[in-house]
Amino acid sequence: MTRLRTSSRRQMCGNSITTSTTILISCYLRSRTWPGRRAHQLATQSFVRAAMGAGSGRTEAIMREIASLREQRDELDSRIRFFESQLRIGGGGAAPTTLPPSLSTKLDAMGAHAVSAAGGGLSPDMVRRYSRQLLLPDFGVHGQRRLSRSSVLVVGAGALGSAVALYLAASGVGSLGIADGENVELSNLHGQIMHMETYVGQPKVKSAAAACRAINSSVKVFDHHLKLKAKNALNVVRQYDIVVDATNNLASRYMLSDCCVLLHKPLISGSTIGLEGQLAVCNHNGSPCYRCLFPNPAACQNSSDDGILGVVPGVIGCLQALEVIKVASRVGEPLCGRMLNFDALSSRFKIVNKIRQRSSSCTVCGDHPDLTKDTFMMFGYDSFSQSSNSSKPPAQSLNPLPRNARITCREYKRLLDSGRPHLLLDVRPVHHFQIASIANSVNIPLNELKEKLPRLRDALSEVADVSHGRHRPLYFICQRGDDSQVAVHILRENGFPCASDVIGGLESWAREADPGFPVYW
Ligand SMILES: [Zn+2]
User: Fold this and answer.
1) In 3D, which of 457, 491, 454, 468 has the Cα closest to residue 421?
2) Looking at 293-359, which runs of residues are DSSP E strands?
3) Where do the Rhodanese domain residues begin and end (predicted)?
4) Which terminus of the chain has fewer CB atoms gathered within 10 Å of its CB, N or C?
5) Residue 249 C-alpha to ligand 1 middle, in angstroms?
6) With contact defined as beta carbons under 8 Å apart, do 435 and 518 qualify?
């Protein structure tokens, strides 16, 4: 019987515990006493003797069998509690414990958990590296261990992604994936702080991976040099536990949220526009998905090319990293069902508690969702959000003017070089004009043009007199060639038939006519 029980124990233990430990537990269980159980056994024996007659060999055999079965049952119960306590302290693959199982269970119940190795399962290097985090009572070894076992995908290696990725690498996340399809540009470096000048022209993910490995070589870093879209997102996202939306792009925000719902992944969603930022944890602990929060994409603010102060996405990115750490380590209260708004100008943080909650009619996370993995891959997120999936502005094709009312950059360059009198009006905002402009151009922002028409009429008549009608005396230019066309329309509607616009604006000018022109867009 003893041999059979030992064999049975070995089978049940499998590879998770050594044979010597099994024998140790077994010896302990056989030697221990349990007053309550013993009293119950004696009562049962008395009952059976009374019922079947004392001294009967059959009765004694039954009683022995019952006692044996109970002993096996109690032993199994004890071992279940022991292994459950090992799970609670994260003891998978841990060294054999020196504590008897019953004592281990009792200590667990007291909250005095035993650990199976020095450093609580963390290596000496990890203890040294993360000591300042380990000293935090609310985080401690358990938080660090969970964080070190988690995998996080950061989508976007820009300004948001820089703060997120660096802090996650430094704090010791287990695996860190970074997805981005763009290259590092000089204009990135003011805010995208994980990229160095030496990486200009190279993929951002290469630069980002190098920066993360440099700060913590023990973190597994995976770079995905691709633009994450619906058709490839499922394969990438499913490899990770937690997803960070650091794209700052509306179409990508909806796409990533849908992808995370389909794959049951928490999404840490952050965004900035101008000097403001926003943060929420979606699809986690019952929190709404991004579609629940913003059912109408038109009501969302998309990123723009109106400029950004690098530290603003830096602030939001740091907060995204914090939410990842909280979700991964199961410490604290993640920003679920709430939203954080940040106003950099007034230095105000505001937590909005009354936001839309998860909707049962949501087409993605609702009770009867329409979106499947197949339809997700075919979904047109660009058209849905009315924005491009790229952070760069889409090319415009506005062309309301006849060709004879337009002039190419090269044609205007020849006019400029000829010295023929004319007036070039730049209709960009003042702060754009102050960054860079063509020599001798005059700045009248488009929104001020109508009110300044009377004064413009005087100036124009003077130029027209000088030019003697040999060419059009008035030209408009803007950044891309759209606002300048609107300006010509305004002039024509107000009795100025002689205005032309410079096709493609300053972007074309810098590309085709003056390569030395300062490019700020
Ligand atoms: Zn939803």
Assistant:
1) 468
2) 339-343, 348-352
3) 418-518
4) N
5) 19
6) yes
Q: Which residues of 175-186 are buried (b: 16+ CB within 10 A; e: fewer)?
A: bbbbbbbbbbee
Tell me how far apart the terminal alpha carbons of the chain are, to the nearest angstrom: 83
CA distance 185 to 204: 9
pLDDT at 396 over 70: no
Neighbouring CB atoms inside 10 A of 430's CB total 11
Element (H, E) at 413: helix 409-418
What is the Å distance from ligand 1's center to 310 Cα? Answer: 31
Residues lying with their CB under 5 A of ligand 1, a single-atom ion: 289, 291-292, 362, 364-365
Residue pointed to by tokens 């090992």: 86
Distance 318 CA to ligand 1 centre (A): 26
The mean of the pLDDT values for the chain is: 81
Distance 292 CA to ligand 1 centre (A): 4
Strand partners, 342: 277, 349
| Token pair recorded at residue 15 | 């590879």
293 alpha carbon to ligand 1 midpoint, in Å? Answer: 7
3-class secondary-structure state, position 238? coil
pLDDT digits (tens, 9 = 90+) for 256-282: 999 999 999 999 999 998 899 999 999
Q: Which residue has the tokens 């938080």?
A: 143
CA distances from 297 to 155, 213, 342, 364, 471 (A): 20, 37, 21, 15, 47
Q: Ligand 1: distance of its center to the CA of 375 in Å?
A: 16
How far is ligand 1, taken at its centre, from the CA of residue 286, in Å?
10
Ligand 1 centre to CA of 291 (Å) is 5
Segment (H or E) for 211: helix 204-215
Distance from the alpha carbon of residue 82 to the mean position of ligand 1, in angstroms: 41
Q: For residue range 329-364, list pLDDT tens digits in order.
A: 999 999 999 999 999 999 999 999 988 998 999 999
Buried b (16+ CB within 10 A) or exposed e, 117-145: eebbbbeeebeebbeebbeeeebebbbbb
| Alpha-carbon distance values, 20 to 9, 27, 97, 101, 196 (Å) | 11, 11, 11, 14, 55
Strand 339-343, strand 348-352: pairing? antiparallel
What is the Cα Rg of the chain in Å? 35
Distance 302 CA to ligand 1 centre (A): 20
Q: Output the CA 152–ligand 1 centroid distance in Å.
A: 22
Pairing of strands 267-273, 276-282: antiparallel
- How far away, in angstroms, is 285 Cα from ligand 1 center? 13
The answer to whether the predicted template modeling score (pTM) of the entire model surpasses 0.85 is no
What domains sit in the chain, N to C, each tagged with a CATH number?
2-109 (no CATH), 150-384 (3.40.50.720), 403-513 (3.40.250.10)
